Amino acid sequence: MFHFFKFSMKDTGETDVILGIKIIRNNDDICLSQSHYIEKVLGGFKYQNCSPVATSFDLIYKLA
Asked: What would the pLDDT profile of 24-57 be if each residue is shown by its tens digit?
C-alpha cells in the first residue's frame, strides 16, 4: 500500500548550499564542498584555529 503526500513548493532559484554541501558553479563545472560545515564543527569544539598536519598515505592505492 502506498501513501501519497502533497507538499506546496516554490522555486527560489539556484541553491548554493543543500544538506550541508556547498555547491560552486564555474562555467560547465560543478564543485561540491563541505569546508564551511567542517569549520562550523571545528568552531563548536573550539578547534577553529588548529593547524593541519600531514597524514601518511599508501601510494599503492589509486584514487580516481
From this structure: 998 889 999 998 888 888 999 998 888 888 888 7
Q: For the chain, what are the domain ranges? A: 14-46
Q: What is the DSSP string of 2-62?
A: --------------SEETTEEEEEETTEEEEE-HHHHHHHHHHTT-TTPPP------TTS-
Q: Which of 5, 33, 6, 39 is nearest to 19 (CA)?
A: 33
* pTM beyond cutoff 0.70: no
